[in-house]
Amino acid sequence: MTDLFPGFLTLSAAMFALGALGVMVRRNPLVVFMSIELMLNGGNLALVTYARYTQTMAGQVFALIVIAVAASEVVVGLALITLVYRSGRHLDVDELSEMSE
Amino acid sequence: MTVIFGIAAVMAFLGAAGVVLSRRTIYSALSLVTNMIALAVLFLLLDAQFLAAVQIIVYAGAVMVLFVFIIALLAPGAEERLRPLELRVLVGGIAAVGFTLLVARLALNGITVSASGQFHGGLGPFSPQAVNAHGQVQTLGEQLFTTFLLPFEVTSVLLLVAAVGAVYLSRHRRTVR
Lengths: 101, 177
Known about the structure:
CATH class of chain A: Mainly Alpha
Shape of chain B: globular
Largest interface: A-B, 74 and 86 residues
Number of strands of chain A: 0
CATH architecture of chain A: Orthogonal Bundle
CATH architecture of the largest domain in chain B: Up-down Bundle
Structural class of chain A: mainly alpha
CATH superfamily of the largest domain in chain B: NADH-ubiquinone/plastoquinone oxidoreductase chain 6, subunit NuoJ
Strand content of chain B: under 5%
Number of helices of chain B: 7
Oligomer: heterodimer
CATH topology of chain A: Helix Hairpins
CATH topology of the largest domain in chain B: Four Helix Bundle (Hemerythrin (Met), subunit A)
Order of helices and strands of chain A: HHH
Number of domains of chain B: 2
Largest sheet of chain A: none
Strand content of chain A: under 5%
Largest sheet of chain B: none
Radius of gyration of chain B: 21 Å
Distance between the termini of chain A: 55 Å
Shape of chain A: elongated
Order of helices and strands of chain B: HHHHHHH
């Protein structure tokens, strides 16, 4: 049953592309973080799809690890965002460019 | 099965589009919850029951509750609407559609599946029947603690570092401007 295999892969690619688009065009750092979650989820879907259709276990194991990585990334990222907000700056990634100067 | 896949795929896609296109942050968060629940359904279709449960509990539960808490705490205002003719939106949209079409083309008759519908590396021993006979969680756990022990341990170190880092960052400091 490889009939739905292209469907799963295309959906995962669409989710990844939408997440990348969100990272590129949105200015709110919270939405940027949600878009990163979207990209990780798209990758997860591809991993589980390949695990199912090649009948191996590595994809599922690494999907589990990706979920753990995403959770720790959200914890640190949201702590950074609240820190930036508390220091009185506007929540806009385009205005947070002073580190590059 | 195809019908369930269609419904879940449309839900997942609309949720993903909602994250990027919503003007209010809270609508983006709710779209992401929709996307993750649809993704859990897709995991069930792929015979990954444990991952579907983890997806609901960790993502739609813990991570999104954290997001909604932060959104309620910071109360960010609505952004201006995305203008589709702005250069970066236009280029990003074209790149996203192109990438999706490329992967669809490759998945339909591409590099990973040969013309007869077989995978090049052959099939592994973990067919859904074998996994379910042994137990889904048992199989995953045995793999996690034997073949994939090193990534598992590295992940636990990463979680520790993330917890320490979050505590350090959220410590109240008066020196911060």
